[in-house]
Amino acid sequence: MGACLQSVAVAAEPLEVVIEGIEGDALKNARAVLTLPSGMVREGVIDPAFLNLFLRQIPEKVRKSLQPFGYYEAEVLPKMEKTEDGRDLLRVKVIPGEPIRVTTVQVRVTGPGEKNRDLRLLVDSFPLKPGDVLNQVKYEKAKGELRNKALNLGYLGSEYISHVIRVNRAERKAEIDLVLQTGSRYLFGKVIWEGTQLYPIPYLERFLDFKPGDPYTYSKVYQTQLNLINSDRFASVNIRADKEEAREGRVPVRIQLEPSAPKRLRPGIGYSTDYGAKIMLRYQDLNAFQRGHEFNADMSIAERLQAVSSYYTLPNKGHIDNRTNLKAGLQREHLRPYDNVLLTLEGEQARSFGYGIIASAYLQFRYEKFSEADRDGSSAFFMPGLRFYQRRVDDLIRPGRGFRYRLETRGSTQAMGAETNFLQFLGNGDLLIPLGAGFSLIPRAQVGATWQKDSLTDIPPSLRFYAGGDRSVRGYTYQSLGPKDSQGNVIGGKHLLVGSLELEYSITKNWSIAGFYDVGNAFNNFKDMTWPQGAGIGVRYYTPAFQLHIAVGFAL
């Protein structure tokens, strides 16, 4: 282990701890055991008796922290010093000594899974080999992975009948003996649905995370339950799969469902600085024609936007997110850059690729009648496109860590009715990074690009890029940023680049506050781009039904 100097304050001033001579995971472990005890520093003053007791304990604490990494004979020398500015400094010098090395490794799988290919691969790739420094962290990780793999392959009774590391400190050697006894292998058997009169069986089978004959695992039963619960179609979901009921190694699965009302009418009210106060009404049928199809119709009336839309979803084979969507929408916008009436008709084919990834291809018909800067116009054309979306979070209601992003490419040609040939790319995404102590960092980004040779005004206003508003650069009016015409009217740009950084602090489980900084703009070329900036603070309230965000932004 090479010499390394690390200095890190592990307690409040005026005491700092410096550890020398070790690095990597060994340093992290030593750093953890040398966290200063609570009460040792009070109101900036070190308790001398407490400090002396802590100093006497340091050698043993550090030596034990290094043993998992093969160092059993470390010499630890703690020493109190003063820094140049008079603060107390605890310097801990570590001489690791010669490590324990592995001499023999015996890793075996016995029982019904002895010849299983996947288990054999894990045995052959066991991370510790003869001659390696003994690393018990790697040992425990590989040991857990081998048993978990056996369980996920259906060997439910798998247990270690031997898991021994024999350490000879005098000869500095270690012998590993690890034997996994696999139990009988179980497979998923017949699925028995109960209480499912509303939905056809082929539709319900889409929610299964397994097929009869697959290796039985508890994780797949749990994922199936989550799939059914998250579908919003059932008031209760109860799955019973008892291996004691297995016949010829196949476990029957009983799924008892209590459907919720498939037809729903949901009114609502809201407010956004982009469109003003609004009232909303949604009709939803989650089992149209008794086939598991979904129909949604929405109406929204706001000060600057009135819209009606609907979509009809037909489930496809395979993953529960594989579907065909038929959409229709009609909206009227009254905005500073333009007024318009927009009709859209769209057919979309969506497919899941796992890990929260959904990709789709669509064909959209757009008819738009608009007025901008004393100019009236209209357009009607077909526009094909591709969408790609992924979301991974640790909690759907109140995430603490995760990310999401959405990518889209779209375009049209004169042959499809457009006034000009164009191709666009759009992307947006954000990260949620926990910082500890209730704080989270949330960076966001929005990008857009247009490839087109003719005048930008040949593209209808709704397809140009603008910035400003509560989902863009806050502190500026919605769509008030972007290239302008000769009269100073914002007419939108070919490209878009917006970034944001938020620092959120959780006050309670449901309430948080946040500060934010936004920067970006719409533009036609980089050399003429300006960088409007905004900043502000906000309050957020999280519930299973909705999220309430109130923010005040200021232009900088």
In terms of structural class, how would the helical and strand content be classed? mainly beta
* Cα-based radius of gyration, to the nearest Å: 31 Å
Low-confidence stretches: 2-13
Task: Give the biggest beta sheet.
Answer: 15 strands, antiparallel
CATH topology of the largest domain: Porin
Question: Could you tell me the mean pLDDT?
Answer: 90
Structure commentary:
With 556 residues, the protein is mostly beta strands. It folds into four domains: 5-95, Ubiquitin-like (UB roll) (Roll); 101-181, membrane protein fhac (Ubiquitin-like (UB roll), Roll); 187-259, Ubiquitin-like (UB roll) (Roll), CATH 3.10.20; 354-359 and 372-555, Porin. 13% of the residues lie in helices and 49% in strands. It has helices at 24-33, 48-66, 117-124, 136-152, 201-204, 218-230; strands at residues 5-8, 15-20, 41-42, 45-46, 75-82, 88-95, 101-110, 159-168, 173-181, 187-194, 234-240, 250-259, 263-272, 276-288, 293-302, 305-315, 323-334, 339-354, 357-372, 375-393, 402-412, 422-436, 439-451, 495-506, 511-523, 533-542, 547-555. It has a 15-stranded antiparallel beta sheet with strand order 13-14-15-16-17-18-19-20-21-22-23-24-25-26-27, with no helix packed on it. Strands 1-2-6-5 form a four-stranded mixed beta sheet, with helices on one face. Strands 7-9-8 form a three-stranded mixed beta sheet. A hairpin with a 4-residue loop joins strand 14 and strand 15. It is globular, with a radius of gyration of 31 Å. 22% of the residues are buried. Mean pLDDT is 90; it is low at 2-13.
